[in-house]
Amino acid sequence: MVHEFSEGLLIGVMDGLGHGPEAAVASRRCASILTEYAGEPLGEIVARCHEGLRGTRGAALSLCTFKEGASAWSWTGVGNVYGVLLREGDGPRRQRELLLQQNGVVGSHMPKPVVSTLAAVPGDVLILATDGVRTDGFHELHPQGTPQGIAERILEGHATGTDDALVLVARYVGGLP
Question: Of 120, 35, 46, 39, whose CA–CA distance to 81 is shortest?
């Protein structure tokens, strides 16, 4: 999900545990909570999701906030949803910032979220992916092309084929991504 709020954007990927209707209920409920509280600090949003998902299967969740006035990314993750921020540069000069994922399940057993904040630089490419995507080759990713094209390349080359797979890609070009 991508939701604009007064100071920026909330970008999130949630994956309800398991498969089928019960997993979908957890994901939809999580998306609804994220939309409602998008402008709050990430730790508080995750805590709201945790309370709101009690009694469901729960979900893995990665969130990123981009605040335009601060030109910064803030992000956090619980469970097995992967996140990487690719910076401009070629070969060994290309920087990759990895989302610190904490073990747990939003709605069941969850540690206190750890939020990291990084300066946003034009050209940054944010990638969030569910566990239906193998991340072993992500160190070789190149941020060329459109966000849609990058997401398609990732799915074509890295989807496991045994689980639902979702990739969300956003590029910061200045202003809102």
Answer: 46
Domain coordinates in residue numbering, the chain: 2-171
Pick the CATH number of 2-171 from 1.10.287.130, 3.40.190.10, 3.60.40.10, 3.40.605.10: 3.60.40.10
Give the model's confidence band at 90: pLDDT under 50 very low, under 70 low, under 90 confident, else very high: low
Q: Which residues pair with 96 in a beta bridge?
A: 86
Task: Residue count of the chain, please give it.
Answer: 177
Its pTM stands at 0.86
Nearest to 147 by CA among 125, 174, 176, 121: 125
With tokens 């910064």, the residue in question is: 72
Strands 8-16 and 82-86 turn out to be unpaired
